[in-house]
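Ticket #4471: structure export looks truncated?
Reporter: QA, pipeline team
Priority: medium

Steps to reproduce: submit the single chain below to the structure queue and open the exported record.
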Amino acid sequence: MKQKVFVAVLALALVVGAGAVAFGTSPGNTITTEGSESFQPNTLIQATFRFSPGIVDVKSGGRLKLVYGNKGRDPHTLSIVNQDQLPTTVGQVFNCKVCNEILNNMDGHKRVLGPDGGLNQFGDSLFLFPGQSTSVKVTAPPGTTLYFLCAIHPWMQGTIYVTK
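Actual output as written to the record:
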């Protein structure tokens, strides 16, 4: 029993760690969801969902495109959070307080954006469903760093560097 639990925890830790390593940098303006998931009762749960690239440079006033590209049927969010709110352990992934706050604020809406209608502050979020893509204006000023995650799969994390 202990060995099976250890294997499942180790597999999840590897998945979470793989998400952290999968941060390619891109000067482009498109982020695609990638990965898949599998489940075997009493044995394994594994998800390799990630944002690709994990780090992008976007001009202030430019548009960021989000594309659903992974296998599976789970929706995703791209939600702006503070850097210290990004989960860094398996325990934080499974008890992501900021994720619950974001999902409660979305309350079924596909977009929750600030008064300027763009990405620039904590809580700005987009919902993405299978087969869809969407785009949003990045309204944060040049020099800003925006950290984001998927509030449904909080190991999916990334960074937007806002440029001139």
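Status: closed, not a bug. The export was complete when the record was re-opened. Leaving a note from the reviewer for reference: The chain has one domain: 2-163.
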